[in-house]
């Protein structure tokens, strides 16, 4: 594992924070270590294809998970849903070099959050400002919540979840 890149990604994670206008969100947790990652995705049209415009994440996880999630949100930009779906935890962590055996699940957790968000595409989130339509049993936006909401109970159970929440960085274009 490239320790310098890991430290750099941890010190300066990209795309950290909730995305208010996301099209989809996915969350996974590792029952082994109690860590969790949530990922948001926003799509755009490009040359008649729907591609990932941007992604962001929140992590209640170890530093490796934060670093891989940061890499992942950069690596999937411009990819179609199908292309991103093909990416394994190994692919997503490639810029860091091979993960040590005990850290492989950290990359897999990021892969899981990404796939959960990609699979959520069919249940795209409605902007928070839009009222529910007749026939909806509940506003879909409520699925997003915050990671803190979702993990409040989990944190009490696991007792070792570390909360890593920072405001989303200013848009860099
Ligand atoms: Fe569990 Fe890294 S995600 S130790």
Can you put this structure into words, describing what you see?
With 173 residues, the chain is α+β, with helices and mostly antiparallel strands. The chain has a single domain, classed as Alpha-Beta Complex (Sufe protein. Chain: A), CATH 3.90.1010.10. Helix content is 35%, strand content 17%. It has 6 helices and 3 strands. A 3-stranded antiparallel β-sheet has the order 1-2-3. β2 and β3 form a beta hairpin. α1 packs across α2 and α2 packs across α5. 36% of the residues are buried. The structure holds FE2/S2 (inorganic) cluster. The site of FE2/S2 (inorganic) cluster has 10 residues, from α2 and α5. FE2/S2 (inorganic) cluster (FES) binds next to α2 and α5.
Furnish the topology, listing elements before pairings.
Elements: H1 3-11, E1 24-29, E2 36-46, E3 49-60, H2 63-75, H3 81-85, H4 89-93, H5 104-119, H6 147-158
Antiparallel strand pairs: 1-2, 2-3
The structure holds FE2/S2 (inorganic) cluster.
FE2/S2 (inorganic) cluster binds next to helix 2 and helix 5.
Summarize this structure as a short list of keywords or feature phrases.
alpha+beta, Sufe protein. Chain: A, globular, binds FE2/S2 (inorganic) cluster
For the largest sheet, list the strands in their spatial order: 1-2-3
Global Rg: 16 Å
Strand content: 15-25%
Task: List the bound ligands.
Answer: FE2/S2 (inorganic) cluster
**How is the CATH topology named?**
Sufe protein. Chain: A
The number of distinct structural domains comes to: 1
Q: Which residue ranges are poorly predicted, with pLDDT under 50 across at least 5 consecutive positions? A: 126-143, 153-166
Taking the alpha carbons of the first and last residues, their distance comes to: 30 Å
Instruction: Outline the biggest β-sheet.
Output: 3 strands, antiparallel
Structural class: alpha+beta
**Total helical segments:** 6
Helix content: 25-40%
């Amino acid at each position: 594992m490239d320790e310098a890149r890991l430290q750099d990604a941890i010190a300066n994670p990209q795309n950290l924070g909730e995305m208010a206008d996301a099209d989809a969100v996915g969350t996974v947790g590792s029952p082994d270590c109690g860590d969790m990652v949530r990922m948001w995705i926003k799509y755009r049209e490009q040359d008649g294809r729907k591609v990932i415009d941007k992604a962001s994440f929140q992590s209640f996880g170890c530093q490796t998970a934060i670093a891989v999630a940061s890499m992942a949100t950069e690596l999937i930009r411009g990819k179609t849903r199908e292309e991103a779906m093909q990416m394994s935890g190994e692919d997503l962590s490639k810029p860091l070099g091979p993960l040590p055996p005990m850290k492989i699940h950290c990359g897999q957790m990021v892969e899981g959050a990404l796939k959960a968000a990609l699979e959520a595409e069919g249940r795209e989130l409605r902007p928070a400002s839009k009222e529910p339509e007749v026939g909806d049993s509940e506003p879909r936006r409520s699925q997003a919540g915050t990671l803190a909401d979702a993990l409040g109970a989990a944190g009490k159970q696991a007792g070792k979840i570390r909360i890593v929440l920072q405001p989303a960085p200013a848009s860099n274009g």
